[in-house]
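Lab notebook, bench 4. Still working through the backlog of constructs that have no structural model yet. Next entry is a single chain of 377 residues. Request: give me the structure tokens for it.
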Amino acid sequence: MANINKHGSKALHAEIAGAGFAGLTAATALAQRGWSVRLHERGPELRAFGAGIYLWQNGLRVLEGVGALEDVLTGSHTPPTYETRRHNLTVSRETFNGVPWRIMTRQHLHNGLAKRAREAGVEIRTNSEVVAADPSGKITLASGEVLEADLVVGADGVGSKVRDSIGFEQDRWVSTDGLIRILVPRMKKELGHGEWDNTIDMWNFWPRVLRILYSPCNENELYLGLMAPAADPEGSRVPVHFDTWVEMFPFLEPVLAEAAKLKTARYDRYETRKLSEWTRGKVALVGDAAHAMCPALAQGAGCAMVNAYSLAMELEETPDVQEALVSWEKRIRPITDRCQALSGDYAANRSLSKGNQFTPAALEAARYDPTRRVFSW
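Model written out:
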């Protein structure tokens, strides 16, 4: 018997490649609007890659829209202020004029979204990799199986096979700097006196360029982003080279000692990809598959979730799928493009080291409420 949506007609069907934040958001939002949805994860289980993550007003409103906000707020943290230090001296303290923001582990956010996807009735296939797609609405799995859908969503990351199999035109840049992202214990007692509940963005330029983004996720876990130029063999080394980092940031010795113990750390250079279009026929790209960006404004996940949620909204309002995809990209893409461009500029010029860089332009994407299509704050 065919699936019937809430309007009493046959449900449209979506095949989604990638069970990261964008894929889970798109799957849940579509299922909640009466679609039948199958989500493909190439790994053996659903899990998040990476360490910590920032969400702002835009991403938090998406969580509210899919019903995951309460779960995610529990076990996450909003710091009193975002402090910037240059050569270990404070140059600014920002509170973003009241724009909501939150820090959490990536796994915590992923768990909240996965829970809602299952509750919405999304069919989740693990060990299922989409290796190709066709604008007509077909996908091919690594097993050779071919599936048809009314909509294909490529949410399969920066190395998207959905995108590349179709041949979307793209420009790609890899930046000078990269980041080691890790989770360690908070160790507030061992750190001693200090405002260790803040986000602290610490920049040093002499005798070498090193940055630590200190981000408390909750009472027990600390997200550290260790930035170094790719040309610095000690700064970019993994596992973390303790002596290099503690020399520049001696007051963080307890947490850096924990960081140096981690054998699974990875150094990633910042990457930007800009596509000529996000849609082709019945295929839409979301997240890093469409707009991988430097992390300077901490908006990669937020924009991905906003665009995935907005896609479901557009499809609810516009019956013709291909017409809806064109309208969706026209409506939502300019915000992402501006955020991507400014993030790239900030990363290239290391602008955040100056402090007070979360200007109205820098906070544009953060202020967007996709559930009402308005900017607030």
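Notes after review: The longest strand covers residues 170-185. The chain has one domain: 13-172+270-375. Flag for follow-up if needed.
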